[in-house]
Write a structure and sequence with these properties.
By secondary structure, the chain is of the alpha/beta class. The chain has helices at 4-7, 10-13, 31-40, 101-114, 134-145; strands at residues 60-66, 94-97, 125-128, 151-154, 168-173, 179-185. Strands 1-6-5-2-4-3 form a six-stranded mixed β-sheet, sandwiched between helices. Strand 3 (125-128), helix 5 and strand 4 form a beta-alpha-beta unit. The relative contact order is 0.16. Residues 174-196 have low confidence and may be disordered.
Length: 196
């Protein structure tokens, strides 16, 4: 259903005039969650509008990859950090979204183990989530945008960063853990390349 904390916003509506407009915005909103949202936010059953602009963009390619290895090995993410790198920029910038902050630590360890020994001290793979301090998140995002940090292992906190206009790969580890969604995002030239 709709996020529990956001769902409590509806209690405020009981204290406000119905003439005060309310908007709910989401990047993903299934029909079931949409109706849950309408109920919890106490929208009038017929006086609300649903606008879906979709995710079909010329600069985004979505590729589904089957998981071939046990999830706890993270071996299916090996394509993100090639073993034959000679310089830091050989590691494509990537954001990996994972739905569990605690389980992300072994993923970060695995990816860091793939970084050449001569570059491991640079901290090229970093966590990014809401549990981190605001200063840490701001600094890490600045370093990621600059290309100093190459891979972020994120929760939805990174999605809250507005207008992340950078060229990078995104890997989403689905909560069902049965697929990896690889989205190659090349925002600057609108070109879409597939990586296997």
């Amino acid at each position: 259903g709709f996020r529990k904390k956001y769902g409590t916003i509806g209690t405020i509506r009981a204290h406000l005039p119905r003439s005060i407009p309310m908007i709910a915005v989401s990047a993903t909103l299934t029909a079931r969650v949409r109706y849950d949202l309408v109920d919890k936010l106490q929208f009038h059953p017929t006086k609300w509008r649903y606008i879906n602009i979709g995710n079909d963009r010329p600069n985004v390619a979505q590729i589904v990859r089957a998981i071939e290895h046990p999830m706890n090995t993270f071996a299916d993410l090996d394509f993100i950090i090639p073993l034959d790198i000679t310089c830091v920029s050989d590691i494509p910038k990537a954001m990996i979204y994972y739905d569990d902050i605690l389980s992300a630590a072994p993923m970060i360890d695995h990816l860091n183990s793939r970084v050449s020994k001569k570059f491991q001290h640079l901290g090229l793979v970093r966590p990014y989530n809401a549990a981190m301090s605001r200063t840490y998140r701001k600094d890490v995002m600045r370093l990621f945008r600059a290309g100093i940090i190459r891979v972020l292992v994120c929760t939805d906190a990174a999605g809250m960063v507005s207008k992340l206009s950078i060229s990078c790969h995104l890997a989403l580890i689905h909560s069902l853990r049965d697929v990896i969604f690889l989205i190659s995002t090349l925002l600057f030239n609108g070109d879409c390349r597939r990586r296997s």
